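Response to reviewer comment R2.3. The reviewers asked that we include at least one raw input/output pair. We reproduce the pair for Integrase SAM-like N-terminal domain-containing protein here without editing.
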Amino acid sequence: VDVFLLFAAKRGLGPKDVSPPTEQLICEFAVSFAGKVAGATARTYISAVKKWVIRRGLAWMGGPRLDQVLKGVNRHTPETSVQEERSPVKVEYLKILFQDREGDEGFRRCRNAAAVLLFFGQMRAIEALPHSSSINAYPTFLPRVRDLAEPNENGARILHLPKTKTQQVRGEKVVVTPNRMEIDPVRAL
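Raw output as returned:
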């Protein structure tokens, strides 16, 4: 809904102007995703707006024209959302990484912590790692040390990701639990 309201605001429309949104505006909102997100993501945004409208007791103006627009958005899905299947990362690969003693110890520790955090936290690298090694280029939407909570009574830690693929605004929480393997994400952190 926030994405929709921002879209409307860029067109000079406030929340009262889009209560309920016209079919034309809904279609324009859907078209704005063409080539940027997968069709399923666009449909999710439209669904959220529809629920918001209905929850407010207003009539939903979407119809067959919107269905056609969404089919078009699906055909113009960005190439990055349809990728060849990659081979899975396995614990054995992490063990090899941990055995590597080449280079600076501080770098190795950071690399290993990042690798096990991504693996055991089932995270996408883009949600936790910067594109540049420059501290000045570190994006604010990536987690920082302060986003990692102290261990609870079981030794688990919670990492707050400020932004994820599906939670652009609120972010997500990832629970990092200790394990009894030689590769322990909590110990690595």
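The chain is about 40% helix and 5% strand. The two ends are 36 Å apart (CA to CA). Further pairs are available on request from the corresponding author.
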